[in-house]
Amino acid sequence: MKLDRRLVIKILEEKIKSEGIVLGSDILKVDSFLNHQIDPFLMSQIGQAFAEKFSHENISKVLTIESSGIAPALMTSLQLQVPMIFARKHQSRTLNEEFFSASVYSYTKQTENQIAVSKRFINPGDRVLIIDDFLANGQAVQGLLDIINQAGASAVGVGIVIEKRFQAGHQLILSKNLPLVSLASIDRFEDGQVVFSKQGETSHVN
Amino acid sequence: MKLDRRLVIKILEEKIKSEGIVLGSDILKVDSFLNHQIDPFLMSQIGQAFAEKFSHENISKVLTIESSGIAPALMTSLQLQVPMIFARKHQSRTLNEEFFSASVYSYTKQTENQIAVSKRFINPGDRVLIIDDFLANGQAVQGLLDIINQAGASAVGVGIVIEKRFQAGHQLILSKNLPLVSLASIDRFEDGQVVFSKQGETSHVN
What we know:
Chains A, B: 5-phospho-alpha-D-ribose 1-diphosphate binds at residues 136-140. Chains A, B: Homodimer. The structure is a homodimer. Chain A is an alpha/beta fold. Chain A has one domain: Rossmann fold. Chain A has five helices and twelve strands. Chain A has helices spanning 5-19, 40-53, 70-80, 139-150, 169-175; strands at residues 21-23, 27-29, 37-38, 61-65, 84-90, 99-106, 111-118, 127-135, 154-164, 180-190, 193-196, 202-204. In chain A, helix 4 (139-150) links the parallel strand 8 and strand 9 (154-164). In chain A, helix 2 (40-53) crosses helix 3. The longest helix of chain A is centred in the N-terminal third of the chain and has 15 residues, at 5-19. The radius of gyration of chain A is 16 Å and the shape is globular. Chain A binds chain B through residues 31-33, 36-41, 43-44, 66-67, 70-71, 74-75, 77-78, 81-86, 88, 117-118, 120-121, and chain B through 31-33, 36-41, 43-44, 66-67, 70-71, 74-75, 77-78, 81-86, 88, 117-118, 120-121. Strand 3 (37-38) of chain A pairs antiparallel with strand 5 (84-90) of chain B.
C-alpha cells in the first residue's frame, strides 16, 4: 500500500507536533516513532516517498549511517530494489585499508566519530542516494559524500526525513548542487513548539 | 510478494555459503547482505518468515539491539503491524531513571556494553518478540529479556536470522522455554566452510 506523498508528509508533521519534544534551542526528540521506537508503517511510506522522488535517477546504492538512518534507508532501498549500505561509526578504532573512512563531528554530542564503509560495497560507477533521519549541520551527509568521492562513485541526491532548515546543512547540500528532498522541513522552534517551513517539503530535484 | 519460508531459508543458506567468510573458529562475516551492506528483498522475506511463524502469538512490540538487528526487526514489525524498538548501546554513559538498562558482554569484541530502552516504550501487558541478526552466546538476547522483565512485559519468542548452534545461546533460550526460530542454523565450521544443521531451520514454536 502506498499513500500519496502529500499525505505521508501530513502524517509525519502531525506525529512531530503531537509526539516530538523540543529540547533547548535546536534539539527535537522524536524517539517514539523515528529513532528509538519506530513506526514501521510510517517508515515504509517514507521509503516509498523517497523512492518516488528519486525514481528517475538510476540509483544503484542507498547509503546511510548507523543507527537511526537504517530504517528509512532500508525502506527506500526496498522500493528502489537496490542494496542499502550503512556506514559504521567508530570512536577511535584504527581503520585499515579495507575501508573508506571520514570524520563526522556531532554538534549534539560534541564528539568526533570516524565513519567507515568497506571498499567492496561502493564502486566507481555507482549512483548513490544518501538517506538520513535528520539534517542539522550536515556533518553526517558531508562524511558520506567524502566516502562516495573516495570510491569514485557519484552522489545523486539526499533524502532526509526531518530537516532543521535553520541550521547549516540545508544550504550546505544545496551549495553542492545536490538534489535534496526533506519530507518535514522545520523553519524554527518557537516557545517549545515546532514551526514548519511555509513552503512545506523541501524538494530540489531536477 | 511473499516467498515460501522454505525458499527464503534456501536463499539465505546459499548467500551464506557463497558470500560468507569464516574467520577463525567461530566468526562468520556476512557483511555483504546482512550487517553492513543489506539486501532489502531478502530482508523483507526474512521479516515475513518471522511474522508468519509468530503470527498467532498476539505480539504487541518487536524488540532488537542497534545496529544489525534493526533491519530484520523492522521488516518483521512491518508485517506484524506493531511498533519496533531498538535498544541503544552505550559503552559507559550514565543511564538515568528514564531507561530500563542491562549489561551485554560481547565475546567477539571483549567489551561490556550497557543497553537501554526508554521506559515509555515497553509496558506491563506488552507481548514482545525479540529479533536479532545473530545468535552466538546469547548475551544480547539475555540483556533484552532482562529489560522486558524489568518492564513487567512478556517475552513471547526469539527470531534469529543466523544461529551458531554450537555456541551457548541456542540452549540458553530453549532452557527458558522460549519459542525460538532460527532461519539459518549453523552446526559447525569445517575447513573454513559453513556446515548447516541437518535438521535445518530451528523452530521451537508451540
